[in-house]
Amino acid sequence: MARETTFDLQGRTCLVTGSTDGHGKAVALALAARGADVVLHARSREKALAVRDEVARAAGGKAPEILLADLARAEEIDAAVATYLESGRPLHVLVNNAGLVGLSRRVNDAGLELTFAVNYLAMFRLTLGLLPRLQASGPARIVNISSDTYRIAKLDLDDLQLERDYNMMKAYGQSKLAIVYFTLELARRLADAAGASVGRARTPADAPSGETAGRIASRPGGDAFDLRSAVDGAARWVTVNAVDPGPVASNIGADNPGLAYRLVGPLIRGFFPSAARAARTAVRVATDPALERSTGGYWRSNKRREKPLDFDPALSRALWEKSLELAGIGEPRLG
Ligand SMILES: NC(=O)c1ccc[n+]([C@@H]2O[C@H](COP(=O)([O-])OP(=O)(O)OC[C@H]3O[C@@H](n4cnc5c(N)ncnc54)[C@H](OP(=O)(O)O)[C@@H]3O)[C@@H](O)[C@H]2O)c1
Question: What is the pLDDT of residues 95-108, one digit of tens each?
Answer without folding.
Answer: 999 999 999 999 99
